[in-house]
């Protein structure tokens, strides 16, 4: 593990200022090249229509070019590279583990496929080149060549002589803007990785930074990232001011392993709060799109999150990585055949989300297939002066055979039709010579055939089957007998009968309708699905996701300790089986990048009471603070706490230091460096807190509103906190949060782990944790 203690050793490198000037010049060159690339892409869009052979070609080409032009145009205005690798004159076998090196280089990106000895590569969020045949000015962080940036260490330099990271000072909005520093690690001095390897380096500071000393300790390579120092520390301490950011500059080795897992591998990441699960999932999505552009298109990739607020929070990560246009949905969106207009009591919802419902629904659907309805006289089809008759026994056998094939219901119906028609043709040909395909098609559509099918294997819809099941006691008894207990069967039933047309569907009904739709016909598949907060999914929701990637893979992200739904998972093997991926590799992440150590210690105390088999988290951050205050009036105390935070009497973030990929924030930070404040309370307490804050002139943003991700103060109900983070969290009355729902202790665990820098707990009632 490379260790650096530059905190006590100023950068000694006499070439520093020149190196910085050279890098600035390179950055200027990159900016000009990127502008030319964007202009070129736009021009290609215009000319594509003229040069294409057909309208269809023009459309496809135009779409591809438009996407490229848009992505280039949409790249955020920040730094165009964040790292550099200088390979030693005799590189080792770096990059050989990447699946793409086996598959051969992708056209136009040959230079990025494997490092060349003695060559330097700048690494950034997108590839930049002055012309297609020239070596790139910047290689994409996902290219095989870039892998060493994340994985090389003193004991495994991967041919890297020097790894350089860049520091960028922020502009007035807090976005990194000016190249102000660089930090070199000498990895490959011995050339073999033997010996002490990774040696010290200096942080070369440019003008405008606070001092001439380096930052922090340790740069975090190897799986033991330890206490973060240098630019990683600066990055994770950077105040949160808006939507989630990408972490391309500081992905850690164990995260990188997950990000670059092969497309065919389904992964499950169990991670304590703030360990980067969401970040890993999104970067893996970007990596797969880059690495397998032909096998997985943007429309073939899907990201699922728990709610709209969360999706808005993560919405900018993929576009910032040059991958706009990826579908980001909630599971509710996925199954939204109808608006939700009904509501289920909890006991009913529990039954509907239970895995056993899959069997009940299958039975309810296939109860419609009735071999016993075959007419004893068989099926007779007229053919000119002939009458062809298939005997009842043969028809029954055909139906039984097709049933045994377990095809989707609609396919089964067509298979029966095709088999019976083929049998009729056999009879006809035996008597009076060959029959063509047109004849066969007509026979398959003949009226007696339709009547036979309607009696034996009728056409139906998910709505019809579910309405029948929920409102017909007999149908329910038949389908659920031996599967659900009497109380569960009763909970499933609706008092008043209804039809598919008059139905008011509940959220759980939509999941059941989706299951039925999947039994009737296979849904369109995705090449890869990233599922966040997967611990909260019910077995039936898991099935809805799994069947949408029949040949694809999944990245399943979650934390059993954060499960808050009544059906939340308690074991990953079970959840993965419901997702149809029992063999997925499960990996635990425990190093937290968000929550400070004191807060993590508090959360771990609560975790011990949650009875879930997950390892406790540990924090990478020794900074940050935790305050627990018993107050006479939580509403008044909340107003005072928010006011103090906004007045800047409590500064947030890291101590002032040289710019890493960071905004310096701390006692000397500029006012603009104040981070976000999140007030989190039991849902029922939110209205009065909102009223009080608004009356005090501190109107908070509504987390569901459009301004939420960038707002200075957000007030959010505990049930919306999942996946989000704020610099300063004010958690109001934990006892009320815990008692609001059956899994309230898990909810409280989520709430207590949202703070990046400071957690302030305000309470009048006794605290639910020891
Ligand atoms: N390698 C890294 N470098 C810098 N920041 C990181 C890194 N990994 C994670 N982070 C940051 O840590 C924070 C937490 O990450 P993320 O939200 O992905 O965690 P999570 O495991 O999904 O958390 P939770 O379970 O609480 O939702 C984010 O701000 C993320 O950008």
TrEMBL record:
Residues 250-596 form the UvrD-like helicase ATP-binding domain. Gene3D superfamilies: P-loop containing nucleotide triphosphate hydrolases (3.40.50.300). GO terms for molecular function: 3'-5' DNA helicase activity; ATP binding; DNA binding; hydrolase activity. GO terms for cellular component: cytosol. The keyword ATP-binding applies. Residues 190-200, 209-223 have a biased composition (Gly residues). Keywords: ATP-binding, Helicase, Hydrolase, Nucleotide-binding. GO terms for biological process: recombinational repair. ATP binds at residues 271-278. Residues 1-25, 91-117, 168-223 are annotated as: Disordered. This is ATPase AAA.
């Amino acid at each position: 593990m490379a260790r650096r203690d530059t905190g006590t050793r100023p950068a000694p490198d006499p070439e520093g200022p020149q190196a910085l000037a050279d890098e600035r010049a390179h950055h200027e060159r990159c900016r000009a090249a990127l502008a030319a690339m964007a202009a070129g892409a736009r021009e290609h869009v215009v000319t594509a229509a003229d040069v294409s052979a057909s309208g269809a070609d023009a459309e496809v080409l135009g779409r591809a070019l438009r996407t490229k032009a848009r992505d280039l145009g949409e790249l955020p205005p920040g730094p165009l590279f964040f790292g550099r690798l200088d390979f030693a004159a005799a590189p080792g076998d770096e990059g050989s583990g990447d699946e793409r090196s086996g598959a051969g280089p992708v056209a136009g990106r040959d230079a990025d496929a494997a490092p060349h000895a003695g060559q330097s590569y700048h690494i950034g969020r997108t590839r930049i080149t002055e012309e297609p045949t020239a070596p790139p000015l910047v290689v994409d962080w996902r290219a095989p060549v870039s892998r060493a940036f994340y994985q090389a260490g003193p004991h495994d330099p991967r041919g890297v002589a020097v790894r350089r990271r860049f520091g960028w000072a922020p502009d007035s909005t807090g976005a990194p803007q000016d190249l102000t520093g660089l930090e070199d690690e000498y990895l490959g001095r011995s050339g073999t990785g033997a010996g002490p390897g990774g040696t010290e380096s200096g942080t070369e500071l440019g003008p405008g930074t606070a001092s001439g000393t380096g930052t922090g300790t340790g740069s975090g390579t190897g799986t033991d990232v330890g206490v973060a120092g240098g630019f990683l520390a600066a990055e994770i301490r950077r105040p949160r001011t808006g939507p989630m950011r990408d972490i391309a500059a500081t992905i850690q080795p164990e995260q990188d392993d997950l990000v670059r897992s092969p497309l065919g591998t389904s992964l499950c990441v169990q991670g304590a709060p703030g360990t980067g699960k969401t970040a890993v999932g999104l970067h893996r999505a970007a990596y797969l799109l880059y690495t397998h552009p032909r096998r997985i298109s943007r429309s073939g990739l899907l990201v699922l999150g728990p709610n709209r607020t969360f999706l808005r929070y993560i919405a900018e990560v993929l576009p910032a990585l040059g991958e706009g246009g990826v579908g980001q949905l909630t599971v509710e969106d996925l199954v939204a055949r109808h608006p939700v207009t009904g509501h289920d009591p909890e006991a009913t919802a529990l039954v509907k989300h239970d895995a056993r419902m899959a069997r009940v629904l299958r039975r309810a659907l296939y109860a419609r297939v009735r071999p016993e309805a075959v007419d004893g006289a068989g099926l007779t089809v007229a053919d000119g002066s002939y009458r062809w008759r298939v005997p009842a026994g043969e028809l029954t056998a055909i139906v039984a055979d097709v049933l045994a094939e377990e095809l989707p219901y609609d396919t089964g119906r067509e298979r029966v039709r095709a088999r019976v028609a083929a049998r009729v043709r056999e009879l006809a040909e035996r008597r009076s010579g060959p029959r063509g395909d047109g004849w066969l098609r007509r026979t398959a559509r003949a009226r007696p055939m339709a009547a036979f099918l309607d009696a034996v294997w009728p056409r139906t819809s998910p709505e019809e089957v579910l309405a029948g099941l929920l409102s017909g006691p007999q149908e329910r008894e038949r389908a659920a007998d031996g599967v659900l207990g009497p109380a569960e069967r009763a909970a499933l039933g609706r008092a008043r009968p209804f039809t598919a047309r008059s139905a008011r569907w509940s959220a759980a009904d939509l999941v059941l309708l989706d299951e039925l739709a999947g039994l009737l016909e296979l849904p369109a598949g995705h090449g890869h699905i990233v599922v966040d907060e997967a611990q909260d999914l019910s077995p039936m929701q898991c099935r809805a996701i799994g069947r949408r990637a029949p040949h694809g893979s999944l990245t399943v992200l979650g934390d059993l300790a954060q499960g808050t739904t009544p059906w939340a998972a308690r074991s990953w093997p079970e959840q993965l089986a419901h997702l149809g991926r029992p063999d997925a590799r499960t990996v635990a992440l425990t190093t937290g990048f968000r929550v400070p150590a004191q807060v993590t210690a508090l959360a771990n105390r609560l975790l011990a009471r949650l009875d879930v088999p997950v390892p406790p988290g540990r924090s990478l951050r020794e900074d940050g603070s935790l305050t627990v205050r018993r107050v006479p009036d939580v509403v008044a105390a909340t107003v005072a706490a928010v006011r103090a935070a906004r007045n800047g009497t409590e500064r947030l973030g890291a101590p002032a230091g040289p710019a890493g990929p960071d905004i310096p924030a701390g006692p000397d930070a500029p006012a603009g460096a104040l981070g976000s404040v999140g007030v989190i309370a039991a849902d029922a307490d939110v209205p009065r807190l909102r009223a009080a804050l608004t009356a005090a002139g501190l109107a908070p943003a509504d987390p569901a509103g459009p301004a939420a991700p960038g707002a200075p103060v957000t007030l959010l109900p505990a049930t919306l906190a999942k996946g989000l983070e704020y610099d300063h969290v004010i958690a109001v009355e934990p006892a009320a949060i815990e008692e609001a729902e059956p899994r309230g202790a898990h909810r409280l665990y989520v709430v207590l782990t949202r703070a990046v820098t400071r957690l302030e707990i305000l309470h009048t009632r006794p605290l639910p944790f020891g």
